[in-house]
Fold (S)-3-amino-2-methylpropionate transaminase.
Amino acid sequence: MTTATSAPVAPVYTVSQERRIVTAIPGPRSQELHERRRAVVSEGVSSVLPVYIAKANGAVLVDVDGNQFLDFGAGIGVTTVGHTEAHVVEAAAEQLQDVIHTLFTITPYEEYVRVAELLAEHTPGDWAKKTVLVNSGAEAVENGVKIARKYTGRRAVAVLDHAYHGRTNLTMAMNYKAMPYATGFGPLAGDVYHAPSSYPYHDGLSGADAAARTTSWLEKVVGASDLACLVVEPIQGEGGFMVPAEGYLPALQEWCTANGVVLIADEIQSGMARSGHYYASEVFGLEPDLVLTAKGIAGGLPLAAVTGRAEIMDSSQPGGLGGTFGGNPVACAAAVAVFESIEANDLLSQASRIGDTLKDGLAELAADYDIIGDIRGHGAMIAIELVKSGTAQTTKEPFAAAVTHIAEYAAQQGVLFLTAGTYGNVLRFLPSLAVTDELIADGLSVLRDALATLERP
Ligand SMILES: *Cc1c(COP(=O)(O)O)cnc(C)c1O
């Protein structure tokens, strides 16, 4: 165990924090690698941008041809503390020398316990909490559902429209979009119910009205007494960074508590400092019964967690939870370093700073381009929803081709933007918290050029 209380040093970057394009995109070496990949990697695994990355540091990716990209995706919100962040690298390297694996369910180790302590401290709610560590977000969702079913003795699972929860058998039944996540992969798991959500830009409902719609739907279609859990993303990720109307989430929690339903917050994308809080639940005053953490928790190493009320987490029989690699010591050491970096570098404030800079810059663009229908999000989790010209005040017709154009144009200029949205018309910004205001301004200047070169329908 690294006792690792020493403060991380101020970032010294091993890659200059700037974009630089020196070949066509993708470059010749990336194209070569892509040919090799196509011979041996399943076509079911796709890549947004087929440039092959050789090095990554801070907010910059370097490909095998020497091109440098500003990374506004952070591996979908994983390298929140920055790529190859020095403190994380050091902690993981040290742990590699000590113990790589024993299996916590055979012979345990301190790092797992330390991560559970940190999660108990930083997840919302000041009650006694316990944790199980697993390998991936989807596995955390699966375990959250297992635990809620065991605790309640009930069968049904509720999710919200526009949700994304993963690609395993249970979680693909919990996603809103069949294509590409579930199409042809059935039969899907049963007893999963998709309730209407809060999407203020489209439904115009107050939090109270949207919550009443959700809970009355659940009462009619499922029946509260059969419902084990309601799983919500406090800010929806893949669905398009929908921020629910004020009061929506606390009203759902109140209904769940009154009906003995476990409320599970899937904070896999929105958690770990991204929103300017440790967990986006805090933005809304939500204190969920169980919280799921993954993506950003270990600086890029695979680790995920279910954390929540001790009496719920303890309902499983011994041996019912766990798995071979869950809570791997190296991933745990990295996670401890991530928590330390968040504190030492005041990353919650950095996330808020990034959100302010992005929102200001995007508002300037929206003043010139009416296709930017909505700007939403919190901290370093911001998105714009693009609609066809002239429809923003009326039908808000999705303009997915604009998002595709922007992402492709930006990649050619050395900026990696990710898309999202049920209708493919959302551009999302989830940079690492190492990104400076200068780099954000540079990225937004490329976005402005992309908008200027867009063909209107
Ligand atoms: C990414 C994600 C998942 C799935 O996590 P994996 O690690 O890819 O299995 C689940 N829920 C949300 C909200 C996510 O963003």
Observations:
- The CA atoms of residues 99 and 352 lie 37 Å apart.
- The first strand starts at residue 53 and ends at 57.
